[in-house]
Amino acid sequence: MPSIDEEIKELEGEIKKTQYNKATEHHIGRLKAKIARLEKVKEERSKKGGGTGFFIKKGIYPSIGLLGPPSVGKSSILNAITNAESRVGAFDFTTLSIVPGIMEYKNMKFRVLDLPGVIEGAHEGKGRGREVISVLRNVDLILIVMDPFKYDPSYILKELQREGIRINQKPPKMSILKKDRGGLNITKVGKSEFDSELLESISREFGIINADIILRQSMTPDVFIDGLLGNRVYLPAIFIINKSDVGEFSRAYEFLKSLDLDPVPISVVKKKNIELLKEKMAGKIRMIRVHLIPSNAPSDKEPMVVREGSTVEDVCKAVHTEFVEKFKFATITGKSVRFPNQRVGLEHRVQDGDNLTVFLRKG
């Protein structure tokens, strides 16, 4: 009996040899659905098996992953934009583990992670590729680094796609209500366009036969499959082309521009566009300001800058671990509460401009 990987390869081979046209689009759509279903089974089995891998816990500072082929200068970039001292060398696989650094920009702090270089075949485990890419499911921004000698990101984009990471995209606007009976009903809101017969066929491939599915945008089979799975991660990404000071740069830069990737050209050696890169990184991540108001002292003039979506616990951790250990309650005046000085717990999400006072247990 063939393994899941063998089944997936066979289906992918069938897609490659099938010429896409109006007559074959349903067949190709169903094949893609089968691949997605098999990959979901594979992922669930690996979780049960307790597979090894890196895990980066979300903190109060946004996390940014440096991704790219080996030896394109990721470690040098990390050193240029943060206070990290990553080991730099001119040979492949210099970075054997994740090296973190903190980037400061306009009173904001970002955690930047230098990841091992990714080679083609990462989804098959080559070069610990699956472990590396798994880290990216928990970051806030991906920096895809290329250079004039390794400038085609196609295989990296495919590896991200296979691992369920969608860059510079938004989640599908659709809702699914499963039922015990009544059949499958796919309806649209607004001017969304789709092939209802094809989407019904894909739904049945996932075992969905009784459900109301409402679509609020036009749907390709790939986007619809992502919506059915519901386990995709949608992240912003910035493409960087390093070593812009070398003669081969122009060809690589124009190639990336032709793909509409809007690459940021930098040179760590010449210190070119480093500040521009920081500006673009900060602009891709939404941050908010929280004013800490001590219960028995004047308030800080400068607000704390934290990532959007942070909780009271996140803010407390950033101040001192004791604030979580001895936490009693907090009061907030601001957008996140219904009335001034509302009492909240650690799980409460703060919003921009909130005034926060934390009360601790004595002893």
Total strand segments: 16
For this structure, what is the CATH homologous superfamily of the largest domain? P-loop containing nucleotide triphosphate hydrolases
Helical stretch count?
Answer: 11
- CATH level-two architecture of the largest domain: 3-Layer(aba) Sandwich
Overall mean pLDDT: 87
**Main structural class:** alpha/beta
Taking the sheet with the most strands, its summary is: 6 strands, mixed
Largest beta sheet: strand ordering: 2-3-1-4-10-11
Q: Which value, in Å, is the CA radius of gyration? A: 24 Å
In the CATH hierarchy, what is the class of the largest domain? Alpha Beta
How much of the polypeptide forms β-strand, as a percent range? Answer: 15-25%
Task: List low-pLDDT spans.
Answer: none
Overall shape: it is: globular
| Beginning-to-end CA distance, first to last residue | 64 Å
CATH topology description of the largest domain? Rossmann fold
Q: Could you say how many structural domains there are in total?
A: 3
The portion of residues assigned to helices is 25-40%
Query: Helices and strands, in N-to-C order?
Result: HHEHEEHEHEEEHEHEEHEHEEHHEEE
Task: Kindly summarize this structure in a few lines.
With 363 residues, the chain is of the alpha/beta class. 31% of the residues lie in helices and 22% in strands. The chain starts with a helix and ends with a strand.
Structure notes:
With 363 residues, the chain is an alpha/beta fold. The chain folds into 3 domains: 106 residues, no CATH class; 159 residues, Rossmann fold, CATH 3.40.50; 74 residues, Beta-grasp domain (Ubiquitin-like (UB roll), Roll). It has a 6-stranded mixed β-sheet, sandwiched between helices. It has a 5-stranded mixed β-sheet with strand order 13-12-16-14-15. A 3-stranded mixed β-sheet has the order 6-8-7, with helices on one face. Helix 2 packs parallel to helix 6, helix 2 packs parallel to helix 7 and helix 6 packs parallel to helix 7. The longest helix has 24 residues. The chain is globular. The termini are far apart.
